[in-house]
Specification:
It contains six helices and 15 strands. By secondary structure, it is of the alpha+beta class. Strands 1-2-3-4-5-12-13 form a seven-stranded mixed β-sheet, sandwiched between helices. Strands 6, 7, 10 and 11 form a four-stranded antiparallel β-sheet that branches. The protein starts with a helix and ends in a 5-residue tail after the last strand.
């Protein structure tokens, strides 16, 4: 069984259909992926203007909700050899009567030189739709290898600079020294011994806003004054603090990531010979669509 038939059975429906129908319906899905705002119908019978002849069209794309209606006709051929001029000429009979805005023939193998010449003369676009292979990654970006050098600050060394002011230990209970020495659990106080902000909320913005050149393995030193006098609790005494000396070092971290479409599962590839379309069709593209009883490609309804 051809690979694209397996794709149809797994991602659309495992059903028995007449020869070529599954390929036509796969092509209909591809054109819906390309024209999601338009109506795409499989197996529609059309006549041109006042003509009496009815033509069976494998796939029709019809614009909706616009002032100027646009129509595309698609003929699909699942055959084991190149499409010849007779097939293109027969399709041109329908095209010349219905007069669509665009027309396509879609097949799996290719086209003879005579078929390509005739199609070019009459403005019919020729396309290939087949199963994806690794060869089809040629000329595309499969993955992006992203390497970043990130400079990460190490934990700074802090040394508070006292003012010489000391308030002896008749301070309120809130001044009891924390069991933990983390920046979250250590506090600054006012001169009455009431807790104010913790070390983290005061010191973190200072280091975040230092305007320095963070080269790898560099080390910086400096003094940062406080705008207002702060107190810390030390051995039962409140000690006035006017600022702090700091020493900050940095480490270089190399981070590597691979991103891109290579991890997605490409099922098919659709190419127009004139180069206007060259699109990979992924599992996620096909799995969102199904067919109505009238042959229109519609979105699947997912139940919670």
């Amino acid at each position: 069984m051809k690979e694209w038939k397996l794709i149809y059975n797994e991602h659309i429906a495992d059903e028995k259909l007449k020869l070529g129908t599954k390929y036509e319906k796969l092509a209909a899905m591809v054109f819906k992926i390309l024209h999601q705002k338009d109506v795409v119908i499989h197996d529609l019978k059309l006549r041109g203007g006042e003509k009496k002849t009815t033509h069976q069209i494998d796939v029709t794309v019809q614009s909706k909700g616009s002032e100027k209606s646009k129509r595309i006709l698609i003929e699909c051929k699942d055959i084991n050899k190149k499409v010849g001029i007779s097939i293109v000429r027969d399709f041109f009979g329908a095209v010349s009567q219905i007069k669509p805005d665009e027309s396509f023939i879609v097949t799996t193998v290719g086209y003879t030189r005579e078929a390509r010449n005739f199609a070019e003369d009459e403005g019919i676009k020729l396309a290939l739709l087949g199963e994806f292979s690794e060869v089809d990654w040629g000329g595309r970006i499969k993955n992006i290898h992203l390497k970043m050098n990130i400079v990460v600050p190490n934990t700074p060394l802090i040394e508070f600079v006292p003012t010489g002011n000391k308030i002896k230990a008749h301070t309120p209970k809130s001044c009891s020294e924390p069991k933990s020495v983390s920046a979250k659990d250590s506090y600054f106080y006012d001169k009455e011994g009431n807790r104010k902000d913790n070390y983290k909320t005061v010191l973190e913005p200072v280091f975040r806003n230092l305007n320095i050149n963070k080269n790898s393995n560099c080390k910086i030193k400096g003094f940062h004054p406080f705008d207002d006098l702060k107190y810390i609790l030390q051995d039962g005494n409140l000690i006035g603090i006017k600022g702090f000396n700091y020493e900050q070092s940095f480490s270089l971290v190399v981070e590597e990531n691979i991103i891109g479409v290579g991890e997605k599962i490409a099922l098919m590839v659709f190419k127009v010979l004139d180069g206007t379309i060259d699109k990979l069709i992924f599992k996620e593209d096909i799995d969102k669509w199904t067919f109505s009883t009238e042959g229109e490609v519609i979105k699947k309804e997912y139940k919670e």
